[in-house]
Amino acid sequence: MKIYRRLILPLVVTVCLVIAKLYFKEDSAAWQGVWAWLPHANTILIISGFTWCLLAFTGILKAIFLKQYDISKEDNLRARKIYTQINILQKIINFILVVLGIGLILISFEPIRKIGVGVFASAGVAGIIIGFSAQKAIGALIAGIQIAFAQPFRLDDAVVVEGEWGWIEEINLTYVVVRIWDQRRLVLPTTYFLENPFQNWTRTSADIIGSVFLYTDYSVPFDALRQQLDQILANTTLWDKKTKVLQVTDAKERTVEIRILVSARNSPTAWDLRVHVREKMIEFLQKSYPEALPRTRIILEGEQKS
């Protein structure tokens, strides 16, 4: 019942305005001076009230529909997809309702109604002029609609944009808000995501593979590192028990590059797991194989005796 309460106030106000309009309809014709404006003001308020009711009704429909989907559960891919589409669809409908409401209010003024006939006759020319002057705004609006249905990303997707890692927090018709990992907010126009490449870490599923790079001396024992990795992962709940790989991916002049791949159930957990594995592996090297840490060798050869 709580979701229906938001409709009570606009509905009561609008019904009262309609009753007042009908009750004073005959008497209002004889009103003079300032009072003569009251019937027209009442009409404007009724139009506003109906618009208010429709906006509240779309909010109720959205709440009822989304109640079936839990975005807080672990496997929430379908829920995030539905949330994204419904949120943008509601914004589009609300935008249309507000525009129609403003249009009806303007038409209720007699002078504007007469001007409107002439404007309608030249609507083609006016439409071209408005199209050129507002092409960026219209482009952003169309981009928002494209994102709602094509869904290159969804609410709460983990993304890397402009070199920043974060989550999609809001998707609006003209802009998108990305919540950065350090609680900053990156606000970008919707057209950005259609014109520029970006990384989506949770496009098809929430689980993700994280990588950890270590640089050690050539004397490091790789089998001991693999055994230590097994022990680290066995003692943490961050690992989802799917992926566990330790490989030597490069051999440089002074060091070897070791890459560790581990998987987690979602991107925040993967970040914590990478940090945990990196820290424990470095501690292991410091305590058990300090000679395997990166080092620079200098060999001094003695002078030959004559």
Structural commentary:
The strands form 2 sheets. A 5-stranded antiparallel beta sheet has the order 4-3-2-1-5. The protein is 51% helix and 17% strand. Helix 2 runs antiparallel to helix 3 (77-107). The mean pLDDT is 80. It has helices spanning 5-23, 38-66, 77-107, 110-121, 123-133, 135-150, 192-195, 222-234, 267-288; strands spanning 158-161, 164-171, 175-180, 185-189, 199-200, 208-216, 244-251, 256-264. With 306 residues, the chain is α+β, with helices and mostly antiparallel strands.
Structure summary:
Strand 3 (175-180) and strand 4 form a beta hairpin.
Reconstruct the topology from this structure.
Blueprint: H1 5-23, H2 38-66, H3 77-107, H4 110-121, H5 123-133, H6 135-150, E1 158-161, E2 164-171, E3 175-180, E4 185-189, H7 192-195, E5 199-200, E6 208-216, H8 222-234, E7 244-251, E8 256-264, H9 267-288
Antiparallel strand pairs: 1-2, 1-5, 2-3, 3-4, 6-8, 7-8
Helix pairs in contact: 1-2, 2-3, 3-6, 8-9
Mean pLDDT, all residues: 80
Largest sheet: 5 strands, antiparallel
Q: Tell me what portion of residues adopts beta-strand conformation.
A: 15-25%
Question: In oligomeric terms, what are we looking at?
Answer: single chain
**Low-pLDDT residue spans:** none
Shape: elongated
